[in-house]
Amino acid sequence: MHLFILFFLILFSNTVVHAQQDTVVWNTGAELKWSDFKGIPDKQSHYEALTHAEIRYAVTFIKGLAKFNFSNIFLKKASWTKNNTNLDLLQHEQIHFDIAELHKRLLIGLLYTRDFRKHNFEKEVKQLGDSINTARNRMDEQFDQDVLHINDRNRLVKWQTKINKELDRLKSYDRNSILVKLID
Cβ-count burial of 125 within 10 angstroms (0-12 exposed, 13-18 middle, 19+ buried)? Predict the structure, then answer.
């Protein structure tokens, strides 16, 4: 039995280390670097770079409560660039990562303001997650269209300012876990 537990711990710790090497967790003040983009560029794409960020959550249940653990991660091997010298392009990709963080906070805010019934919990959370993903995709597309894929430095700065203000406004939701009460 001890051998199995030891094997599991070694396997688990190797998996965690490997995952940490392949991801960047969003953090206030931390910025992406071109060395984080390890994916193979899509030569057919008209984009110069692609940021693959995911909002992830896991739920555990404790005596009538749902505990959510959140992360907003940048996937290095799924993110790529064709031009690793353009700093405006890097800022553009950082804004996409920041947009994901903004929507993680919006999801947390929604979870705080809702009552969840035990029997309908999974369906309601999935609907909220889907609506947040839809809103995030729309914002990402609007951002890309508005800055014409980084060709307008002034608009890039305006977007960065806008996203930073929203992140600051939602600062109370800058957390990685929350508890939500479930009702019968």
Answer: buried
Residue 20: what pLDDT?
56
Residues 128 and 107 sit within 8 Å (Cβ to Cβ)? yes
Residue 108 burial class via C-beta count within 10 angstroms: exposed 0-12, middle 13-18, buried 19 and up = buried
Answer with the residue of higher pLDDT: 47 or 15.
Answer: 47
Q: CA 56 to CA 75: how far, in whole Å?
A: 12
Specify the pairing of strand 177-183 against strand 53-62. Answer: unpaired
pLDDT in tens, 151-168: 678 899 999 999 999 999
pTM: 0.86
CA distance 21 to 75: 10
Residue partners of 15: CB distance under 8 A and separation at least 6: none
